[in-house]
Design brief:
single chain, 158 residues, Lipocalin, elongated, mainly beta, 5-stranded antiparallel sheet, 2 domains
Length: 158
């Protein structure tokens, strides 16, 4: 590792005991938190050098858009990419006293929101995809901003 002004440069060598090992050479700009660099394979006969850039994701969502609710609990999509689902399970027709919290990471592309969950029993596939769209409620003219997916409709209504 070497510091160059507001950047840190790294040269990392993989062990070389695997046919897909190589060398990473990248820099992190501490003012923009952009990481960019190259990966060069040790076996350059069948593999080629790859370039990459990673940028810090800052959410465009503001605090007033949280929490989103389904019929059971609350979803919070934090600006740092963390998603938390909290609910009180219903046991024998009554809400339990113990809050269940499931954590994941979320990302957005166009109107699709993808959440990769930690291992849990609530979201067994461990990946949820929600579509953000306006939904007309019943026969009224009332429209609501919703996230739809996993057999759930998330809204911001209490």
């Amino acid at each position: 590792m070497q510091q160059n002004g507001s950047s840190f440069t790294f040269l990392l060598n993989e062990p070389g005991d695997h046919p897909f090992d190589g060398k990473f050479n990248f820099s992190i700009d501490t003012t923009t938190f952009v990481l960019s660099g190259t990966w060069t394979p040790l076996n350059d006969k069948s593999l080629s050098t790859k370039t990459f850039t990673l940028k810090n994701h800052i959410s465009a969502w503001s605090e007033d858009l949280n929490p989103w609710r389904d019929s059971i609990g609350d979803f919070t999509f934090a600006g740092d990419g963390v998603c938390i689902y909290e609910f009180y399970p219903v046991i024998n027709g009554k809400s339990a006293e113990q809050l269940i919290r499931v954590k994941g990471t979320w990302s957005k592309k166009d109107s699709l929101y993808t959440v990769d969950w930690e291992p849990n029993t609530v979201f067994p596939s461990r990946k949820s995809i929600f579509v953000r769209r306006i939904v007309k409620q019943d026969s009224s003219d009332y429209e609501e901003d919703c996230l739809i997916g996993e057999g759930r409709t998330l809204s911001q209504e209490p």
